């Protein structure tokens, strides 16, 4: 492992810390170092590469900031898993996005209830207080890794059978599109810290920042759903492309 890394550094141009970064990145992109694999320690790199600890520390720190590595205090440094990403300017089915990466989507229905809209829910759905709604909490996984908690409020008059759908295989998403076809949507994106309960569901440390998407969707002039989607920052990213 270290011999190959040393050769890559010898061949690379630029400052020494940049050479170390480039060599580590090449090891990852070539598949020599796999996601979740522990990389050599700072001490091991310093000794094998004959460079200063400051040089190695800077290279590892910058690769961690860029999301290529994950450093766990007292445990070591590991190759980060490739982040899932979602389109920023479109509303996509998360199951399709996961399948598009060659992975298996799994969903667990945590809770679903039919209720009367609170004042906040009524405002967000553009209905009166006490209007019939569904509240659902769904945990989405990429293979067996939790990737998103979905909190969804649905206008029950527009989708009366929402609570009868099979959530594990994402039938609820297709039912909504049939009952009230989406014609418009909006996103609000924020960085937040999840609650301890959410961290437990997502299997993340309580200090890890999360990406929160607040999403509303319309069918013509009627609001159908208001959702809050919460994902670990280390496993998820947004992507957008635009032209003018």
From TrEMBL:
Keywords: DNA-binding, Histidine metabolism, Repressor, Transcription, Transcription regulation
Keyword DNA-binding assigned: yes
SMART domains: HTH_GNTR (SM00345), UTRA (SM00866)
Pfam short name (any one): UTRA
Gene Ontology terms: biological process: L-histidine metabolic process; negative regulation of DNA-templated transcription
Residue intervals passing through the bilayer: none
Function comment: Repressor which binds to the hutP region in the histidine utilization (hut) operon. It blocks the expression of all the hut genes in the absence of inducer.
Record's protein name: Histidine utilization repressor
Taxonomic classification: Bacteria, Pseudomonadati, Pseudomonadota, Gammaproteobacteria, Vibrionales
């Amino acid at each position: 492992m270290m011999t190959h890394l040393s050769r890559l550094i010898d061949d690379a141009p630029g400052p020494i810390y940049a050479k170390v970064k480039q060599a580590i990145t090449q090891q990852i992109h070539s598949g020599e170092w796999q996601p979740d694999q522990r990389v050599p320690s700072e001490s091991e790199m310093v000794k094998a590469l004959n460079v200063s600890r400051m040089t190695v520390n800077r290279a590892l720190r910058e690769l961690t900031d860029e999301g290529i590595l994950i450093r766990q205090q007292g445990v070591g440094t590991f190759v980060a898993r490739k982040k899932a990403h979602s389109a920023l300017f479109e509303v996509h089915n998360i199951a399709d996005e996961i399948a598009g990466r060659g992975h298996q989507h799994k969903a667990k229905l945590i809770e679903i209830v039919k209720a009367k809209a609170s004042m906040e829910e009524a405002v967000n759905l553009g209905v009166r207080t006490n209007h019939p709604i569904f509240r659902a909490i769904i945990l989405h996984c990429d293979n067996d890794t939790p990737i998103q908690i979905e909190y969804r409020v649905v206008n029950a008059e527009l989708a009366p059978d929402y609570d009868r759908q099979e959530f594990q295989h994402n039938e609820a998403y297709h039912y909504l599109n049939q009952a009230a076809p989406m014609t418009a949507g909006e996103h609000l994106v924020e960085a937040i810290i999840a609650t301890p309960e959410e961290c437990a569901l997502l299997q993340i440390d309580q200090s890890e920042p999360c990406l929160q998407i607040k999403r509303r969707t319309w069918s013509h002039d009627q609001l159908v759903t208001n959702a809050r989607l919460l994902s670990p920052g280390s496993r998820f990213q947004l992507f957008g492309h635009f032209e003018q």
